Structures are given as C-alpha cells and as structure tokens.
Amino acid sequence: MDVSERLTFFAALYKVHENPDAGMWMLYLTIIMLCVIVYKLGFAKKLPLGKSILIYLFLILGCTILTFLGVFLPIAEGLVVAALILIIYKIRLRQHKKQEMDAS
C-alpha cells in the first residue's frame, strides 16, 4: 500500500510525502492558523497580555502534536469545519442581537 493514498487532504496538498520538510512546516502553520481562528471565535475572552501570551504559547505547542497526527488523521479538516460552524454561529448571533435592538 502506498503512503500517499493514506494522507489527509492538507497533507496531500502540501505534498508531505514528497517534500517532508516544507510540507510539514506548511501543515504546521495551517494547523496553528486554524487553531487560533477556532480559539478566537469560540473560546477567547478578554485577558491580560501575559495570560494571552501564555495561552497562545501552549496553543502553538499543542499544535506540534496535532501536526504529526494531522498527516494521517483529519485534524486540519476538522478545524476547518469547526471554524465554519463558529463563523455561522457568530453571524447568526450578531443578526439576532441586531433584531433585538431594532425591536426595542
């Protein structure tokens, strides 16, 4: 069985099997970007600067493990779905609040 058949979409897109160095870095940066988006949309609260830096540091460290798993498991794809769901939720929430303000 060929390894390239088992790669996830993003791992195959970045050609991790042909150029592992550049492919893994691109996958790593993609997973970091998607994790930050999901964190900001779903979980972020106003925190002091020091605590925010600590949160993002641990987020980036956790993304290292997710990158290795993301070669054969759909980690980045799941983050894309989570980001889309949270974007839709935020849009609907904003529309609902706007309607409430218009009604009162």
UniProtKB/TrEMBL annotation:
This protein's name: YlaH-like protein
Pfam families: YlaH
InterPro entries registered for this protein in UniProt: YlaH
Keywords carried by this UniProt record: Membrane, Transmembrane, Transmembrane helix
TM segment ranges: 22-41, 53-69, 75-91
Organism domain of life: Bacteria
